[in-house]
TrEMBL record:
Residues 1-108 form the HIT domain. It holds the Pfam family HIT. A motif (Histidine triad motif) lies at residues 93-97. CDD domains: HINT_subgroup. This is HIT family protein. InterPro entries: HINT, Histidine_triad_HIT, HIT-like, HIT-like_sf.
Length: 136
């Protein structure tokens, strides 16, 4: 679907476009001004996207997030990426959600299912050590 939007075959409300990225309004917005930024070159997810495309998408997301916060008077912004069906990815073309956040909940329906609670220090330490080794 997102390849069709980038190609102009599927209608969208375009917000920004450059040689590498395309930003457009989300048709199922979590808040006023919710939009998506995608690479023009197809990549399935975070694991597949080339580093240069990821950097370009992130920079475009930052640029449109700043504009959205100014233009809509947002009190904050979430950037969200879901990688894999079990992580809520529903469209398998890499994308970043840019979600303006508002104190005024009439503009903002997003609630997260995760409520942070302190973790087990031993588990955190063990997993961090494993990951540090995997990266070296």
């Amino acid at each position: 679907m997102f390849c069709g939007i980038v190609a102009g075959d599927v209608p969208s409300v375009k917000v920004a476009e450059d040689a590498t990225t395309f930003a457009f309004m989300d048709i199922n917005p979590a808040s006023d001004g919710h939009l998506l930024v995608v690479p023009k070159r197809h990549s399935k997810d975070l694991f597949e996207i080339p580093a240069d495309d990821l950097a370009a998408v992130t920079l475009t997301a930052q640029r449109v997030a700043k504009a959205a916060a100014r233009e809509f008077g947002a009190d904050g912004v979430n950037l969200l990426n879901c990688c894999g069906a079990d992580a809520w990815q529903s469209v398998f073309h890499f994308h970043l959600h840019v979600i303006p956040r508002y104190t005024d909940k009439s503009k903002d329906g997003l609630t997260l299912p995760w409520a942070p609670v302190p973790g087990d220090v031993d588990t955190i330490t063990e997993l961090g050590g494993r990951l540090e080794k995997a990266l070296n």
